[in-house]
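Deviations from the work plan: none for this task. Representative record:
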Amino acid sequence: MDYKDFNPAAALHSAMKPGELDGVNPPVSDSATFKFSTADIMSETFEGKTEGCFLYSRHWNPTNHRLADAIAAMEGAEAGWVTASGMAAITTTILQLCCSGDHIVSSMTTYGGTFAFFRNFLPKFNIEVTFVDITDPEAVKDAVRDNTRLIYTETVTNPLLQVSDISLLAGLARKYNLKLVVDNTFTPMIVSPLLLGADIVVYSMTKFINGKNDSISGAICGPREFIDSLIDVNNGTAMLLGPVLDPLRASSILKNIYSLHIRMKKHSENALFLAEQLDKHGLKVRHPGLPDHPGHGVMKEMMHTQFGFGGLLTLDAGDTETAGKLMLSLQEKDVGYLAVSLGYFKTLFSNSGTSTSSEVPMDVQKKMGLSPGLIRFSIGLDPDIRDTWQRMKESLQETGMI
Ligand code: PLP
């Protein structure tokens, strides 16, 4: 099938299975352990030889399986596994793929927690990371060494909204015999990284996928062999470190993902409208849907058009103080909340350099082009975005930005 013919929403919905006992939703499997009919089946399950048997919920739980299968269908993946956070999905994947002495080439702009894990935590295990401008193929190539194990990026990076060319990076990964791991948190349904050649996709489901800001969760999607290796009882990172999602939460997230396609469209539509207005006023706005965004062309090639360019935009207020004043005024006018995170039905905004990217040292922030006044907006599902814009405009006037 041609990439552009793949519809993640249709794939997700057509893989939906009804519940049991005529319930439209699957039951919650509220069990930590499961009984076996014979001792032989129990030992075979420990050896990974049985299908459809559950041994312990840190390994697999039927409700988590439903959610993992749904996410895998949406990604066009063979399999998935769900985690207690996005960071759990990222750290589990990296620790499964890398051993002491290995090296990673990563986008310099990633979520601050990921950056801190790479820069401060992995050296404890003698794993080194080189940070590059992921939109520069030569920089990626130059960073590859004999001991490089993987390339890591975010489809649309946090917070600078750089667009990674997944097909190009997958080509490089293949050439140098590396794995390409992609965090698709900002662009579920919009981009399908596995179908563009990535090896593994990770998600913070805390964001758009769940969309309710009521819980923390994550997911890992990829080849069945890799997912199975994560839960190998002898050396699987997920099985041994235990970052599993609670099935009660899995059940709640499963109900939310079936409206993701409608939400993504609306987030994208609202974000593009506001980005265009800010742009018309000559402000320093960044959004992949604006024709002058450096990644606009790549985004158009990779996106499933019906879901738009995503719900994130950034605005450079010039300095931290102006950013603070603007955000306060926006909150007072109920444009949104001064809060971290994203993918919520209400607009959320934060000053990236002093919040979700504060783990990134000042000199690196400067190098990557993260200016002190940068505000990251996750645009909500406002039913009348024109009305929101009027209130936003008043805040911009009050702050002297227009
Ligand atoms: N990946 C991205 C792109 C993020 O923005 C975040 C959190 O902000 C994470 C991963 C971490 O996810 P979680 O907070 O669910 O652990």
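The longest strand covers residues 148-154.
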